[in-house]
Amino acid sequence: MQKRFGLTLVAGLAIILAACGSGAASTAPSVAPSGAPSVEPSVAPSAAASASTWKVGVHTDVGSIDDKNFNQYSYAGAVDGAAAIGAEKPPFIVPKDVSELPAGLQSLIDDGRTIIVVNGFNAVPEVTKFAKANPEVWFVGVDHDLCIDAQGAPDADFGGPGQGGACVGYADWPTLLPNYIGLNYQEDQVGYLAGIAAAKATKSNLVGAIGGITLCAPCVRYMQGYALGVKSINPDIKVKIGWVTESDFTKAFYDPAGGKAYAQQFLKQNPGLDVLFQVAGQTGNGAIDAACEAGIGAIGVDVDQFESYPGHACIITSATKGLQKSVSDQIEAIAAGTAKGGKFLYDAKIDGVGYAPLRDWEAKLPPDTTSTIDAAFAAMKAGTLTTCPAAPDCGKVPAPKIGD
Fold first, then answer.
1. Rounded to whole angstroms, how far apart are CA atoms 97 and 90?
2. Which CATH code for domain 49-186+324-346?
């Protein structure tokens, strides 16, 4: 059985950016109206809608609300969660960079938001401060893994076990910051599944992957799993890895034209490469464009990109994680009084990650492709398959060497 996680959104979301200042924290971005973008909840609104005391707000990562990926599906989860608990449709803020995060979060608090969903690992230090200063507000961080000191403040040695730090947060996070939920996903597991698909699809025994930025631990785990998955099928297949940038988050995740140009150069530098995995958000959409134009296979990330980024028949599959459902689930748990602060891991054991259908590609690939992927997924669920290098390298940032 093919594993899928996430629902298709209504097409044609309007790009609505918050009216942000130049980055000074004293200039608060306005909260975009709850009527936009036009994402309708995939769950029926609660009958107690008019009586709800909860107010949900969303602060996205850099980019846009309709990025066909991370921001779009996380926001859809907030829309679903708000509908399920009878709250109004959430407003959202899209920053131009992380410097606008403090003003954006404060504006949501000033607007009376009692549940704030915040996208992107780069927001963790600021959200940690806000969660400590606003214990009456719940924060749901997507891709958030904390490093805090004994007082619940951001630890200067950010990174956590396996990433160069020694953090109190893993043990004491629920006690020190009980109003802060960090959603994490086992990216290396689905990267591994993507690697199997790539290994089955390649004719040249040369495949590749492009990541947005070397500072992104989830991106690193995707890549590490991908390389291991490829080698599990054939250790002679070469895996080439490229990174768009080492420091610029906008270039990393919100530059489709730059992503396309980078991918085109990457393909020139690796002649014969015939499968390309993108781990770069909206920048990575440009890499998919380049792959399709070059007549090679592409693999999407985070969500089923065959559906979210239509018109790209070269997409073999996508490495998916449960963005939409995980956000919705946590909002519902908060309203029900069952939520707990701390790290919440969505992995294969709870079907929190998966892969998108092979669709027309299934007939083009070896007949055992689906069964091989499903067998690997079953082994992940059983905890018997290693999909990431041993600590401290798994998810280490800046990214260690991956591939050939």
1. 21
2. 3.40.50.2300
